[in-house]
Amino acid sequence: MRYYSTAPSSSCREPSSSPSFSSLPDEIAANCLARVSKSQYRSISSVSKGFHSLLSSPEIYAARSQIGATEPRLYLCCESLRTATRCYSWYNLMSLDDDITKKGDAFISVDGAEIEMKTELRLVPVKDSSFQLRARSKEANLAVGSEIYQIGGINKQGKRSRSVCVLDCRSHTQRRAPRMRVARECAKACLLDGSIYVMGGTRKCESWGEVFDLKSQTWKKELLPSPTGDGFDCKFQLLVLGAKIYVITEHNNKYAYDPKQGRWLLLEMGFTGLEWILETCGVWCVLDNLVFKEFSDDLFWYDVSCEKWVIVEGLEALCDTKFCCCYRMIQLVNYGGKLVIVWLVTPQPVLRRNKPPVIPEEKTCFAVIRLEKRLTSSGLAISGEIERLSFSLVHGSYTPLTCLSVLL
Q1: Domain co-membership, 15 together with 59
Q2: Where would I find the F-box domain in this sequence (predicted)?
Q3: What are the tens digits of pLDDT across the range 229-251?
Q4: pLDDT digit string (tens) for 201-234?
Q5: Same domain for 104 and 230?
Q6: 157 and 278, same structural domain?
Q7: Which domain holds residue 259?
Q8: How many domains are contained in the chain?
Q9: SS3 state of residue 139
Q10: In 3D, which of 93, 38, 87, 85 has the Cα closest to residue 60?
Q11: What is the value of pTM for the model shown?
């Protein structure tokens, strides 16, 4: 930013230097820097200590939120393989929009088009001061704005936990939230109208679910009973569509919870085939009030109008990006309106004559998919386009478990 003097020049006047950007009040400087992509913050922070302090302060995130300049960032929860006991930690995946590689980019051909693949993304351990922030086994993880809520799980004594920890992804600090009323493991959690709904993880039918108000940071006194009236310990999935919460069970039963009415409804008709999301060999997510699921190298979406799963067009060659080797799907993630597919690739060993086989390194792969809707004579159609392919080398030290998208 430059300032120009309107006073007449004089040959005898000492030349004056223009005020620097750092001379601006912090509030104005934060408002200016909030309009810059967060992918540039690393470079800007290296300019001076003042910039580094401002770009890591709560003020810059408040300014970004106020002007609607937040950007999605991916966080990966991994199981460490370095110790004898299981250890779960969070990693910050460098932005899929950041150009952090120094080795040059690679390209693969998909349907005759060259798709850019970054040679490597870095997984940065999320640390608070000098120690790495941990996660618990069998806990429910939910992204809420710039924070990740870690709910329940197994404590150090091997029992169900009532604990709730909140990871602030802006400052990479962790705080305790009010404990749940009921201890839970392997619970499901979802967000609706400013409240977190936690369900399952206990066999007590009268306390099957509970609600956490984000604004007041309190758990509501009224517990949610099981929709079936019994222990309800069967396999189920929880999803939000519109203004209701839906529970889909492995027994092909479907229930809807209306927060306004405060009661469960058994859906005797509709949503036929939605129980497919319970399949263990695929992953799913809700994006733009639609359910998407990956299965057998294809991406599907659920058409409520005809109660059928339909293939997302334009991604027929997605299988080619998996390198024709063993892979395990991790998650589908709503990445700021785009879809990110996360999977773990395990390349086949390279056999050598009279020598030990070469074991290639595993890779955690990320595909950013831009989705496009269009109306046809037969109804709604959705096509996808691969915008970016990236990977991070696993280096044999961890196994990716959960991927979440937060807004920073």
Answers
A1: yes
A2: 18-64
A3: 766 666 889 999 999 999 998 77
A4: 987 888 899 999 999 999 999 999 888 876 666 6
A5: yes
A6: yes
A7: 71-407
A8: 2
A9: coil
A10: 38
A11: 0.83
